[in-house]
Design a protein that fits this description.
Layout (H helix, E strand, L loop, with lengths): L1 H29 L3 H32 L5 E3 L4 H12 L3 H12 L1 H11 L7 H10 L4 H15 L3 E5 L4 H9 L2 H5 L15 H12 L4 E7 L4 E8 L4
Parallel strand pairs: 1-3
Antiparallel strand pairs: 2-4, 3-4
């Protein structure tokens, strides 16, 4: 205890020295003692620069060490999209058939789904409207069709950045991976004033011993697409 107190006092003293020397330099300049003032400025820099470098390095280290939810990029190629879908769905044969159809002819897939099930959580009608609005962006929309297909099969959940905790819990509990592996959600640990990223991070801490984690599918937007996948141990 005494050693910690002593080290703390020394650290405070070292930190105060450059400020004291700078204050002294200002006082000396006011009285016309320019040589002494310059020496104090030099001393303040000599002591101060290493201190500020240490503070800056420590700050960066803290930022780098801050945990975050893993992100998976949303691929543009058919092969990579299939690989991502298999990873998220655990290669579920039924849903993978739908994924392959969606990638072969995305627009026809959307139209077929609208006729078969007019009202779905992730609305293909809205997606087709976006398609006609962004005809030059077919590659990205093809990827989103695949996410809709997986989402409507309850393998991922889509969130707006401002969705509340109730919406988060409802959609997360519908994800098949959570149901299949009986992953628990401790509601009390999730603050109502938090956000999607914070809640997913807390769940990752709870599920780490069980070998599962939330990941974000990065669509380069303010939406969150959340999947639950096994933790990669490679």
């Amino acid at each position: 205890m005494k050693e910690k107190l002593s080290n703390g006092c020394i650290s405070i003293a070292i930190t105060v020295i450059p400020f004291a020397m700078l204050w002294g330099a200002i006082s000396m300049f006011k009285h016309g003692e320019y040589i002494k003032g310059s020496i104090c400025v030099f001393g303040a820099l000599l002591f101060g620069i290493p201190i500020f470098i240490g503070w800056f390095s420590k700050s960066n280290s803290i930022k780098e060490d801050k945990p975050s939810v893993p992100r998976l990029p949303l691929p543009a190629t058919k092969e990579e999209l299939i690989k991502l879908a298999k990873h998220i769905t655990g290669e579920d044969k039924k849903i993978m058939k739908g994924v392959l159809r969606s990638l072969e002819n995305p627009k026809a897939f959307c139209q077929m789904e609208i006729k078969a099930v007019p009202e779905q959580l992730y609305d293909y009608q809205d997606l087709l409207f976006d398609w006609y609005e962004e005809e030059d962006n077919d590659t990205n929309l093809r990827s989103i069709v695949m996410l809709f297909a997986i989402g409507n099969a309850n393998f991922i959940a889509g969130f707006d950045w401002k969705d509340d905790l109730e919406t988060f819990l409802w959609k997360m509990r519908d994800i098949k991976c959570l149901q299949q592996h009986n992953l628990p959600i401790d509601d009390a640990s999730l603050a109502a004033d938090g956000d999607i990223s914070q809640w997913c991070l807390l769940l990752n801490e709870q599920w780490k011993p069980l070998g599962f984690q939330n990941v974000f599918i990065d669509t380069d937007s303010d939406e969150y697409w959340v999947a639950i996948v096994p933790i990669d141990t490679d």
